[in-house]
Specification:
The protein is of the alpha/beta class and 436 residues long. It is built from 16 helices and 14 strands. The chain starts with a strand and ends with a helix. Residues 1-11 have low confidence and may be disordered. It binds ligand F0G. Ligand F0G binds next to helix 5, helix 10 and helix 14.
């Protein structure tokens, strides 16, 4: 077993446990699969069972104190919570102050939906503009611990941007497999700018991931896709940060978009760990929203109550979540069942409308993130979300990731070029004013 510094001088260990058959193992193979049944693994910390509530409450104080510190591992919104992460020596921690993202009030949507307590946790405000940075920071640190010089991923775009940046920052080499022609240009540009070797394959994301499995058996690169359980350890820290921002009042609902289904799984893990440590008493309902054209989890829940994955041929303009064969589906099903969350899909039009509505209150995000608001509207209509309940939408990516989408959506608002004289401009403004 590997060790985790639980609290000085107390040390806890972490192990890898299969999410399906429960087998526990100390080390993982290149694709992080269970040696017994080939399902995914999760990181567990067996010694937490013995942690006292006093100790857990002390953690809250320690985390707060670190906020004022200038040490890199304290100013990171991930490593600030390192007692609940695998232990990594300081020299191996790869961080760019990820996390530390704002929790925004959505006033207009709150009024429209009669949900006064509607908030957005904006994970697009991470260093490379998506929530991926929190997970990549932990997983790439593990790659460093293990002595890898190459890291890699298959991606719909954001993971590749994050992998490229963190690898560059750590002085490591990276290659990324992308579905050719299906990645938003902002993300592709980031991966290139950060110096990743970008391989665009004539397939979809699911095809890229399948090939990556084969490649890493032959090529010595460390996989940073979310089947790497250390990714989820980083991503779960958003829950700790959110709970601090909410003064440890658990929201009724947390709503997240679902693609490969790791983020929803990580959020569930974060809340469960806080509950097990006695830092919260109840869990929020964690609901997962997919695009109607890329809805394998929705179909899996509807058609067989989460027993067997229903794969789909994915199509959506929310390219981040264009995934038909999600790796972490079992973990996500468990989160839905344990928290009592809902799983819904939303149309392309609903996503576009929700994105424009968020934009109209000054909150930008990428299309996949806007699926959360579109999903909330559905859940409020059905009565699953009740008036007066507190709802947190997890906005996963920055609006500038997919500028083409916005220019297309907003094209009717683009005025033709006009003469550069004051009279013409004033006249135009007066017309606009009269129309309002
Ligand atoms: N939102 C954004 C902006 C994403 O980039 C992703 C996934 C998701 C939501 C879904 O999260 O996969 O954990 O369910 N993007 C991955 C990538 C697949 O390669 O960047 P998930």
């Amino acid at each position: 077993m590997m060790t985790t510094t639980f609290s000085n001088p107390k040390v806890a260990t972490h192990a890898l446990r299969c999410v399906h058959c429960g087998a526990v193992q100390a080390v993982a193979d290149r694709m992080f699969r269970c040696t017994q049944c080939s399902e995914l693994l999760e990181v567990v910390y067996p010694e937490w069972a013995g942690a006292s509530r006093e100790f857990a409450l002390r953690l809250r104080e320690i985390w707060k104190e670190r906020k004022g510190s200038s040490l890199a591992e304290n100013s990171s919104g991930v490593w600030r919570f390192r007692e609940l992460l695998p232990q990594v020596d300081r020299q191996n921690i790869v961080t760019m102050s990820e996390g530390n993202t704002p929790l925004l009030r959505l006033e207009k949507s709150a009024r429209a939906l009669r949900l006064p307590h509607l908030l957005a946790k904006h994970q697009g405000m991470n260093p490379t503009g998506s929530f991926k940075d929190t997970g990549i920071s932990v997983a790439i640190s593990m790659a460093k611990v293990e002595g890898f010089s190459w890291v890699c991923c298959a991606s719909t775009g954001n993971t590749s941007a994050s992998v490229a940046a963190y690898a560059a920052h750590a002085g490591m080499k990276s290659f990324v497999l992308l579905p050719a022609g299906q990645v938003a240009s902002g993300k592709l540009a980031q991966a290139l700018e950060f110096g990743a070797h970008v391989l665009q394959l004539r397939t979809d994301f699911d095809g890229c991931l399948k090939i990556l499995h084969q490649i890493v058996q032959r090529f010595p690169a460390y996989t940073l896709n979310s089947l790497n359980p250390y990714r989820l350890e980083g991503q779960k820290t958003v829950v700790f940060e959110l709970m601090e921002q909410l003064d440890w009042n658990v929201p009724d609902h947390v709503i997240v978009p679902g693609g490969n289904l790791a983020n929803s799984s990580a959020l569930g893990k974060g809340f469960l760990e806080l509950r097990d440590l006695g830092l919260i008493r109840v869990l929020p309902k964690i609901s997962i929203i997919q695009a109607a054209g890329a809805n394998p989890l929705v179909r899996t829940m509807r058609e067989n109550d989460g027993q067997e994955l229903v794969r789909v041929n994915a199509q959506t303009r929310a390219t981040a979540i264009r995934i038909g064969n999600p790796a972490s589906w079992r973990k996500a099903v468990a989160v839905l069942k344990i928290t009592g969350g809902a799983c819904e899909d939303v149309s392309e039009e609903e996503i576009a409308l929700a994105k424009a509505e968020l934009g109209a209150e000054g909150v930008g995000c990428e299309p996949a993130s806007a699926a959360t608001l579109a999903g909330l509207k559905k859940l409020a209509r059905s009565g699953f979300v009740q008036p007066g309940e507190t709802v947190v939408l997890v906005l996963t990516g920055h609006m500038l990731k997919d500028v083409d989408y916005m220019l297309e959506a907003q094209k009717q608002h683009v005025l033709s070029p006009m003469e550069a004289d004051m009279g013409t401009v004033i006249k135009t403004l007066e017309q606009i004013d009269a129309g309002n």
